[in-house]
Specification:
disordered C terminus, 203 residues, DNA Primase, Chain A, 24% helix, 2 domains, six-stranded antiparallel sheet
Amino acid sequence: MISTKNLIYDLADVPREWIFEHYLNLTEKLTGQDIKMKSVFNTREKTPSMCIYIDRNNIYKFKDFSSGIGGDGLTLVQNLFNLPTRGSASYKIIEDYNQYVLTNGCNTIRSYRQHSKFKVTDYEMRHWNTLDQKYWMGFHIGSRLLSRYNVVPLEYYIMTKTDENDVVSSITIKGNISMGILEKTGHSIRFISQRLKRVNLSR
């Protein structure tokens, strides 16, 4: 006889990380780390642009820069299966999770450990060019608005992190349209555009 005592009826009882692991067929358990993978919404994508990450409220979310889709587990399932509402996505998750529990047993909600993350440690600005103009005018955004929000073109930027074993990793990123928003101090970059190309990985 199959026991149903572990079945759940509330989405809050479904581990949030399970939603991403199950529907994205992840090969590793989510324990607080970030994941970068190819878009599940754009099968023609060659360079991974879909990120799974923990937000400031310690909740797993995703952002797919290829399609522009992003949000929580409900948003992921709703878009993956073209469901009409978040409610229908919730119902599917609960139904699928209960089936998973019947087959594999209960999947307990985990506590996350802190993982080191890459931070921008250096950058070099460049001059605006015609490619920048073509890109921004596609969104009807001119130089006056870019200047107001301190958007600057970048030649490259470097991201660095130190892991729990004090191993330092750095990535130099450069692209035809690499941009950032300068902080008010004028010395640090707060945002980097998505149209980037990784050119070097040193460790």
